[in-house]
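In the design runs reported in the main text, the only information available to the sequence generator was the tokenized backbone. The following block is the verbatim input for one such run; it is reproduced so that readers can re-run the procedure and compare outputs position by position.
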């Protein structure tokens, strides 16, 4: 059965009633199937960025892959004094200690970049307004995340965009 792309798209017309939508030709994007492909692509994009790098994510890991990403970002910042790095992470998840041996968090991963390139780096943590006061103080760290987190996973370097699930 041969179905035209126009008829396939018609099945999704209802989506635009619930929010903004846009059509991207298939030739304009690639699907990254494996985590190693994702990290390789991010490394390449970050290291070669000339104007800006935007990272919006639930958290930034503390494993060897993420250290390589930080190195790629540092390389780009060194090469391009006008390069801007903007990072938005979730407050609750971004401050949770991932590497208990070294007390590493998403924020501490970026701390050297924030200090060394302060005029080029903006670092933000989103905190849900649903969790505050006494409730925030009594809930265990991993439970408090159930009140809401900033869960976007969007990575941009110059004109290249990666949206992750």
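Verbatim output:
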């Amino acid at each position: 059965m041969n179905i035209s792309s126009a008829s396939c798209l018609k099945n999704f017309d209802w989506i635009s009633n619930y929010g903004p939508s846009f059509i991207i030709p298939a030739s304009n994007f690639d699907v990254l199937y494996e985590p190693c492909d994702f990290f390789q692509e991010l490394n390449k994009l970050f290291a070669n960025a000339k104007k800006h790098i935007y990272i919006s994510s639930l958290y930034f890991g503390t494993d060897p892959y993420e250290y390589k990403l930080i190195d790629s970002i540092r390389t780009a910042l060194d090469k391009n004094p006008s390069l801007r790095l903007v990072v938005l992470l979730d407050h609750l998840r971004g401050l949770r200690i991932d590497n208990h041996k070294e007390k590493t968090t998403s924020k501490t991963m970026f701390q050297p970049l924030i200090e060394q390139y302060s005029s080029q780096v903006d670092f933000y943590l989103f905190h849900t307004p649903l969790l505050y006061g006494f409730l925030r103080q009594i809930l265990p760290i991993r439970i408090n995340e159930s009140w809401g987190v900033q869960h976007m996973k969007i990575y941009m370097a110059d004109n290249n965009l990666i949206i992750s699930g």
